[in-house]
Each structure stands twice: as C-alpha cells, then as structure tokens.
Amino acid sequence: MSTPAPRRPFKLLDAMALIAATAAGLGAARGMRGWLWDSTDVSFVAGTFAAIVLEAVRWIGLGLPLLVAWTVALALLPLLSPRSRPRLNDALGRPGMTACGSATFVLAIGAINLTALFLALLVNDLARVMNSDEIRETFVFFITYNLLIAPGSAVTVAWSMQALSGRWRPEPDWLDRAGRFVGLVWMVLTVLHPWLLSVIGGAWVF
C-alpha cells in the first residue's frame, strides 16, 4: 500500500499565488465592468425589485474573472510543492483537486476556441459579412457557454465518476476544501445560467 502524500499546510507560496490570482481576476473584472454594464442596460425603475436583481446579476458576472483565476490557481498549486504533491491515485480521489482540474481543463479549451474564433474573424475577414450584432451574439454565446455551462458540467461529471467509482476521498486540508467550494460555485452557476441570462436580457418579467 502506497503512503499518501502529506496534507498541505498553508504556505507563503500559496498566499503569493492566491494574491496574484486575485489581482489578475480583479484586473480583468475592472476591464470588463464598463462593457458589462453597457451590455445589460435594461430600463428598470431605480429602487425596484427588478433593478436590484439586475444589479446583483451584474455583480455575479463581474465576479466570474475572480472565480476563473482562483480555479486555475487552486488547480496548479498542488504541482508547485514536490513534498506535498499527491500521487496520481491520491489525486483522483480528492474532489477539490478534481473539481478545479476539470474546470481548468474546459476553461483552457474554451480559451483556445475563443482565440480560434477571433482569428477566423480576422483571417477570413468575416467582420465584413457579419454585422456587429451577429459578431457580438456569437462571442456572447461562446463566453456564456465556456463560463456558465462547461465548467460546472465538467465538475458534475468528474464528481459523479468519483462517487460511482468509490474514489471520493476528500482531504481535511484547506486546499481540498477550497477546491470543493469552487466546484460547488461552478455547479450553481450552471444551474442558474438560464435565469441569469433572462435577467440580463430583460426577458424575466418581475
């Protein structure tokens, strides 16, 4: 029987990595705030329940860059410490690591696909064929799918396979607990994404 890797204490390297991830997420959120508010310019009377809900949904959208940054950081942190790096068999049983790893994988695929779409628009000069609304809708669809649907779906599938195969072995350390929390947030966003989009689009009648 192999000896499991020791539990990972919270180290200075962990703090630095999380601070860097938070800074990157806040920077991205600051850059997209104006676009997000302009894109969700739905006319509701200020102070009404509808206006409050719309504002809450906007801030949820603004928090997505932070969630992405923390997910990637938590997925990479176990690889940065050779002494506490889990073996493959142990890693497959840690739901926190599985959640962040699977979400990071699909986020990376989404980033590649979004880059390919952008390059296709430039190389094939599709901007002359498609109007600005069509281009915007295409990018919104890609971003919505890759941020609100794919990560949570990947976490759900990964956790289901873990549970069904009997490999669900959570660790009582901060890293696995943080990973489990992040995984739950992705799953909640996947469930709520139709409602979030309907509120942003003004289709939900209060």
Can you tell me about this structure?
The chain has 206 residues and is mainly α. It contains 7 helices and no strands. The chain has one domain. Helix 3 (64-76) crosses helix 5, helix 5 packs across helix 7 and helix 6 packs antiparallel against helix 7 (174-200).
Low-confidence regions: none
Helix content: over 70%
Spatial shape: globular
* Through-space gap between termini: 59 Å
Quantity of strands, as a count: 0
Percentage of β-strand residues: under 5%
Provide the succession of SSEs: HHHHHHH
Backbone CA Rg: 20 Å
Roughly what is the average pLDDT, rounded to an integer?
A: 81
Number of helices: 7
How is the main sheet built? none
Label the structural class. mainly alpha
How many domains, in number, for the residues?
1
What is the secondary structure topology, with strand pairs?
Layout: H1 12-39, H2 49-62, H3 64-76, H4 88-91, H5 95-123, H6 132-164, H7 174-200
Helix pairs in contact: 1-3, 3-5, 3-7, 5-6, 5-7, 6-7
Short summary of the structure?
By secondary structure, this protein is an all-alpha fold.
Looking at this protein, list some descriptive labels:
206 residues; mainly alpha; 72% helix
